[in-house]
Amino acid sequence: MNTARNIVLVHGGFVDGSGWQQVYRLLRQDGFNVSIVQNPTLSLEGDAEATCRVLQRQDGPTVLVGHSYGGAVITEAGLHPSVVALVYIAAFAPDKSESVNTLIADPPPGAPVPPILPPQDGFLFLDRAEFPASFAGDVPLQEAEFMADSQVPWGMDALAGAVSEPAWRQKPSWYLVATDDRMIPPPAQHAMAERAGATVAEVSASHSVYLSQPQAVADLIKQAATAPR
Fold first, then answer.
1. What residues pair up with 35 in beta bridges, in sequence order?
2. Domain residue spans in the chain?
3. Does domain 6-226 sit in CATH 3.40.50.1820?
4. Is 70 exceeded by the pLDDT of residue 109?
5. What percent of the chain lies above the pLDDT cut of 70?
6. Which of 173, 188, 137, 159 is CA-nearest to residue 70?
7. Is the pLDDT score of 1 beyond 60?
8. Cα dist. 153→12, 123, 213 in Å?
9. Which residue range or ranges hold the AB hydrolase-1 domain (predicted)?
10. What is the value of pTM for the model shown?
11. In Å, how far are 5, 25, 126, 159, 225 from 217, measured between CA atoms?
């Protein structure tokens, strides 16, 4: 067993890296070195480059973690030589030539539809009134409302960016399914995890599982970090 002491956390769309704070603290308490990527969320290529810049600063084996759209980012950036494991937190895990757009193009019947507003100047936002129920249903309402009012514009080029070579085909992966997710349907999460050959865990949580269930998120990351190699 060779524990990876470095953890890099990658956020998704509409939010920034500050949401990882509780997970960060739990991992730091257990002696891990934790870095947070601040994605520009303008393009998949740019976000992968931002992630690789952080990976370049690591001093040894690293676990790369992505939430939501961050899963597409780590799929693209995860071939970096320092990365020894990938962890998907209610995240997209595209295959070669797939994008977030292609993965959400044909939702299953009856699946909740994320309240994404029509694009404005090439960027997307979630409807403020529907944000708490859709994105953060198990987060305290005042915190969810703050998230709704502090949304990061999500560039359409980020959604359309296609993965060139999926890292999960070469690196071991773990996947945390949020069973109450109303942004990425849980059956779709299971399907992507199975396709990637990921070790799967489940937790009853919303899409904001990293906020509402930080211990479950940290536990899966630690499992990936300590897995035999």
1. 8
2. 6-226
3. yes
4. yes
5. 100
6. 159
7. no
8. 11, 6, 25
9. 7-219
10. 0.97
11. 16, 12, 24, 24, 12
